[in-house]
Amino acid sequence: MPRSYPATFEDIIREDLRKVFGEVLREELRRALEVAVDTGNVTSASSNTLTDSSKNWPTDQWKDYIVEIVSGTGAGQVRRIVSNTKDTLTVEPDWTTVPDSTSRYAIRFAGVGVMSLSAWGGTALTGRDVTQDLQKLQNLDVPLGDVKSLLDKLEDALSSVGADKLRISVVDSLPESPFNLAKIAGTALTGRDWSNDFAKLQNLDVKLSEHRDALKPSRSAPVQELSGQSIAASGVAEITKTNLDGWSAIVVTVKATYDANATAGVRVRWLYSADGVNFDSPEDAEDQGNYEDLTFSAGATRQRTIVVPIFQPHVKIQIVNLDTDYAVTVDVWTTLMR
User: Distance between terminal CA atoms of the chain?
Assistant: First the structure.
């Protein structure tokens, strides 16, 4: 027997039936955006660039597209392209792991919006074969004429009922094909009280635009950790960053001024700790490759910016004077990245 609903549900029914039919089209178009429009091998890269010397792109052809490292060093990273030259992409935010000549990339359509860039529809993008997705799009034969006819009939029915009650038989009014709406999540709709369902739909007020900023990478204000500090011959200065949950990387900028008689430069080394007490040993950190050396020239001032990935909630940054006879003067700044 048809159920009765308050007339206030009238607009909800019209709107949400259109959402049901529109969502299928939207899903297939979203899958189509996974198609790579260009691919290649990385020749070289910096903290925010990727170069493929085999390309000859028009300037800014790929602006606002996305690029993904699909294999090799830095695989899985996805960044927005802010500009390009004939063979170099500039991205934001900076790479967490800078790609190298082992890396392969793919440029994809823009318009990804706030969807997950690591997986669409629960399937990882890396190495993804989109043939089946395109086949689904090709086979999308929703009879839109039938949908429009159904909505027109529904609107006529809604306008003909009394103002006090809205009467509609859900199962009898909806087609079995191409959308099987006799069941939702395995529950039969016949005789079903939809009050709770409508309440959930009515309260579904998530605005994706409100979440866009939360999904964009953000950074803290730079902090000068060391200012004009002298590090003795073979000495070490340490900066400990704690409680780093929610951050993905530390950007460390080091400026070193060498003595005119010095023979060696400065090393930046980072050690991880799960509890803030027990940190990696310097020997194991270097064996793992967790260090970078500034370039050296006696009497010169050199500056370098290094991206340190956050793998544990506590990280110790060590500034090491490699010279065994002369002190070095350093300035150090840190910035946290989401």
Answer: 55
* Same domain membership, residue 105 and residue 54: yes
Beta bridge partners of 250: 308, 336
Domain interval for residue 59: 36-129
Over range 248-258, report the average pLDDT. 96
Comparison of pLDDT for 255 and 31, the residue scoring more? 255
For 7-74, give the DSSP string. Answer: GGGHHHHHHHHHHHHHHHHHHHHHHHTT-EEEEEE-SEE-SSEEE-TT--PPTTTTTT-EEEEEESTT
Q: Are 100 and 73 in contact (CB under 8 A)?
A: yes
Higher pLDDT, 59 or 173: 59
pLDDT at position 68 is: 93
Distance CA 7, CA 11 (A): 9
Q: Do 23 and 50 lie in a common domain?
A: no
Question: Is position 135 within any domain?
Answer: no
Which of 211, 237, 255 lies at the terminal end of a domain, its last residue? 211
SS3 197: helix
Is residue 18 in a domain?
yes
Q: DSSP state, 219?
A: B
Q: Is residue 216 part of a domain?
A: no
Count of structural domains, the chain: 3
Helices (H), 116-235: 131-138, 144-160, 170-173, 195-202, 208-215
Can you tell me which residue has the tokens 């006529």? Answer: 156
Edge to edge, the sheet with strand 236-241 lists 236-241, 314-321, 266-273, 291-293
